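Morning. Coffee machine broken again, so started the prediction first thing and wrote up yesterday's gels while waiting. Chain of 220 residues, entered below exactly as on the submission form.
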Amino acid sequence: MVNVNKQDMLLYVVTDRTWLGEHSLADQVEESIRGGATFIQLREKNLLSMEFLREAKEIKAVTDRYHIPFIINDDVEVALKAGADGVHIGQGDEDFKSVREKLGKGKVIGLSVHTVEEAIRAEELGADYIGVGSVFTTTTKADAAPVAFDTLKSICDAVSIPVVAIGGISKENILKLSGSGVDGVAVISAIFAQQEPLKAAKELLELSRQMIKGSSRSYI
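Came back before lunch.
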């Protein structure tokens, strides 16, 4: 059984193949892990199932080597076939109970939330962690309205499961989340759009540690 804890949220990395260049996604994931990534989510919206599965298996081999939790965005079938640690789903995706029945109790399910009510409901359903966002304006989800800082803080105060902030987070704005109570940050372009993912991850990990210090939910 995979146990998700607050430390896993420190630097939660979501993949994006937009900036691959000459490198493979697995190579970039490994660089981010070497730099300090604590959790990996494979997010693919346009790959065919067989390609998605092949890629999932490649990245799972990397995360296994470094003992890093690895989950799939949305696709339960790929997660099961690849032997991933679980899935992350949104409010509009497959019903939580259905996903849990397919995955079993030993797998991780993360759930995206935007309000205190959704966060409380996620914990009641048995979510292992929640992702809250978008906390800043982001190009990944252009239609996502930013979650206010006070709402983010209220969500963190309302639940006991790990909370990760996501959406438009970079080294320039991450410290604005200080005092919110989040356990870490989920990033995409802040690592994958950089020329040196390892260096970017290392810097973001340190900033994330600074950000959570003094939080009522902090473990440091």
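The CA atoms of residues 86 and 210 lie 28 Å apart. Going to sketch it on the whiteboard this afternoon.
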